[in-house]
Structures are given as C-alpha cells and as structure tokens.
Amino acid sequence: MADKAKTSDKASQKLPLADAVKLVVKDVKKSKEITDTDFTARLIEPYQLEGKAVDQLVQEFEDNGISIVDENGEPSKLALNKQKNVEKAELEHLSAPGSRMNDPVRQYLKKIGRVALLSGDEEVALAKRIEAGDQEAKDELTNANLRLVVSIAKRYVGRGMSFLDLIQEGNMGLMKAVDKFDYRLGFKFSTYATWWIRQAITRAIADQARTIRIPVHMVETINKLIRIQRQLLQDLGRDPVPEEIGAEMNLPTKKVREILKIAQEPVSLETPIGEEDDSHLGDFIEDKDATSPEQHAASEMLKTQLAEVLDTLTDREENVLRLRFGLDDDNPRTLEEVGRVFGVTRERIRQIEAKALRKLRHPSRSNQLRDFLE
C-alpha cells in the first residue's frame, strides 16, 4: 500500500471510530470503492468490530456512495453478508404483527418470503413437468426463486435504477432461465438461473440507467478501466494518468482518453449547490448566447439614437424604413409587402426608401450613428 494510505491507517487507529470512519470515507470518496482487505485493516481489526457493528459500518459506507468490493471489483463478502442479514431482519420484521405495509418493497419481500424453497429433487420434478408443458409447474419454480432475484438485484443498487426496477428486470431473466433449464446436466437451478438474472439486470442498467445509452460491450470496458484505475490509485498513491492506464489495459493512450470521456456521467443543471440548496448548478453556468449587460446597454442606446435620427424624416419615409428593415419586430418586409401596406406600387416604395437613405447619409444625421459602427 502507498505511503499516503499507510499514514492514513496510522492516523485512523489513533482516532475515535466515528472520526476514523470520516477519514477513510474522505480517502476513498473519489474512487467510490474500497477493498474488503483495506476496509478490514483500517477499521474492523483496529476497533475489533463484529456482527451488527460491521453491518452498520458497511451500511454507512454504502450511504456515502462507497462500495466495498473484493480484489476483482465484485461485491465483497462483507457487503453480501450485510445484505443477507438485512434481508433476514426485513422479512422477520414484515412477518411481525402490526407491521406497516406502505412500502412497495416491503410488501413484495413479505409476499415472496411466504413461498417455500425447493429441494433438488423437487426442482427436477418441476423441470420434468415444465418439459411436458405444465404452466403451473413453471409458475411454481419461478415463485420459489424470487428471493434469489432480490439477493442478486441488491448488489446492483446505486447504479442508476431503482431497487424495484432491478428486481423486475431480474425476474424477466429468471423466467428465461425457467424456460431454458435442463435438469439432465445435474446443476442446481439457482446456479443456472444466477447467470440469466445477472445478464438481465446488467443489460437493463446499460440500456436504461444512463441518460445517454452506452453499448453493453463499452460498459464492460469502462468497468474494467475503473477497476484498473482504482488499483493503480492504491499502488501509486495518486491518480494514474491515461498513459499508465493504457499500459495496464494494452490500449493506446488515445483510446483510454476516449473511454474516460464516454464514462463521464451527465450532471443535471438542477443539481443543488451549497448547504442551503437555494441555488442550482445552472445558475453558475454562462449562457454564451445571452446578451451581455454591455451589449444590451449599447443596443438600447443605438435604438434611442436611431429613433431620434428617423424622427427627422417624414412620417412616410420613417414608416417605410421601419417596415423594410424590420426595426420594430425584426421582420424585414419586401417592397411588395410594404407597397400593399401603403396602397402604392413596389417601385414607389423603392423610390421613397432611396430618398430616405440619402437623407440619412448626410453628415448631420450619419455622424450621430457612426460611433456605433466601431
């Protein structure tokens, strides 16, 4: 581990647990991940945590948007054990008398918690009935494994889709697994179904989680890049440069830069800024198409000066120029259109326009507008 991380370890061991947690969260906030080895070495072992205390600590990190992963970048046993304990407690709580049922997730968990799990022999018997076209057997095998979907879906919370949406997508993968399960191969159904459930969820995240969709193969490449980036951060004690990431991934630096650009998350202009939440990100972004105060002031002065100059012409000449050049509504008219307004020919309008412009070119009038051309 890098010297910087070692220094943080020593510092965190001397602090109260709450302060040590804040220090570790600060260290890994940028990468949004911490390995289970690092998590154990910096917090669990120094403070001799176990059981519910570990689960609470894992939950605190997840609440801060930080995942606890193994060395392969997958959810760690610490996180999975916490999820199992939470799910068990959740089901027990929901089964208790007087439990409120307003939360759709809780309603769903209680419903599927009533379904008994199947033994291996029961799975084979159902699979044989399914093969014979028994729809009830298909429903029974599906319902008995809905808890497996919940368990897998929880690992993908925080990736841009709600928990219920993840469960729904996982259920679709489960139904596909039920259709394709071959009991003759000797595998447990849950082992086979896990792959289909994961595939359905990961594809749904790739298709729906981002504002701008990224192809599945690119999502996998981005995840690999993030894992390597995180590992290099721990090894080097600093953010790796694209050249170093490219060397690890056997990719050109230009390609790495492209992947990093694609991996950027869109940020809403309505994102709250500051502790008061009374301002938003969009308030601080310059609108390059908007008129600056200086330009607005100059435009108003030009309008005032132009009105004074036009006031020296006859009413007909002034009105012809205003219509021809769209001075009042930014909608210039043709000679024919102006002629219809005044009830004269287009040639007559051309003559009036030419005469009015000659008057405006006289130094007594043009000098008043010349400064605005600079």
TrEMBL record:
- Pfam families this protein is in? Sigma70_r1_2, Sigma70_r2, Sigma70_r3, Sigma70_r4
Reported function: Sigma factors are initiation factors that promote the attachment of RNA polymerase to specific initiation sites and are then released. This sigma factor is the primary sigma factor during exponential growth.
Which protein are we looking at? Answer: RNA polymerase sigma factor SigA
Q: Which UniProt keywords apply?
A: Cytoplasm, DNA-binding, Sigma factor, Transcription, Transcription regulation
Q: What is the lineage of its organism?
A: Bacteria, Bacillati, Bacillota, Bacilli, Lactobacillales
Motif (Interaction with polymerase core subunit RpoC) positions are 165-168
Q: Where is this region: Sigma-70 factor domain-3?
A: 220-296
Gene label? rpoD
Annotated region described as Sigma-70 factor domain-4, given as residue ranges: 309-362
Q: Which GO terms describe its molecular function?
A: DNA binding; sigma factor activity
Q: Which SUPFAM superfamilies match?
A: Sigma2 domain of RNA polymerase sigma factors, Sigma3 and sigma4 domains of RNA polymerase sigma factors
A single BP term in Gene Ontology: DNA-templated transcription initiation
Q: Which residues form the signal peptide?
A: none
Q: Which PROSITE patterns match?
A: SIGMA70_1, SIGMA70_2
Write down the species. Lactobacillus porci
**Family from the record:** Belongs to the sigma-70 factor family. RpoD/SigA subfamily.
Q: What is annotated about its quaternary structure and interactions? A: Interacts transiently with the RNA polymerase catalytic core.
Q: What superkingdom does the record give?
A: Bacteria
